[in-house]
């Protein structure tokens, strides 16, 4: 597929204020029909919103649309993402998101935001010239320490352990890479919240009583974080977490050359390829890899070892950092 240019993002029509005020997402002014407590209140200039999020009916795309998966179809600048029993999302260009909640789901339910801050946000990033990274990030010595890896490898839990040591959170699970200045790639923070399973929160001494699960009947909670950084930072070190089962597999090794240029650093990279952003992603990864060493860390699923793991990651980041 030919490379898709960044979608033009003219200011969308403005017809109603956000119920809890406009919000700031990667420096974009966001106006939404639903509350977005994960995002800071907009404190920028008085420009029109960059992104509108509307709650309204979403019609399925016609048979001429390309099918990426049973849940995702797209045609030209429009993409529909259907999450059964949660919502249907439509993304038009890089400026308008329409959400239709499933029957019995309130528009402000946490499930609605859970999928917005995943697939939908990744699409907005691609279309607005950013690269969505599948990583949690904390601020360490004035740089962004990125914790990447497949879902379930402990990115959020390790970020929470580092936060407990006083290293401010930039973002959990998804942050954005800005390479508009190729010689100075920057990591943009996203939400000042952590998504933690109940047992991990308990191990870290974080109370979840009264907190709403990220999804109904799921023992996982979105936890507000006070110690958060809202300033973009240059990349420091990237730790790629991999879960292993045997003690002899535990360890670290640097990733170099082509092995370091891994698309799985990018959130929803296969969708990005389908949408035509393959060369954009590769071009963005190159300056990131030049700026930040990538270390693969094999770890076992042991919450009791979390304090030692956090100390080990801090040492790795400081020893490997490129100035």
TrEMBL record:
SUPFAM superfamilies: PEP carboxykinase-like (SSF53795). Its EC number is 2.7.1.-. Keywords: Kinase, Transferase. Residues 1-20 are annotated as: Disordered. This is Hpr(Ser) kinase/phosphatase. Residues 7-16 have a biased composition (Pro residues). One of its GO terms (molecular function) is kinase activity.
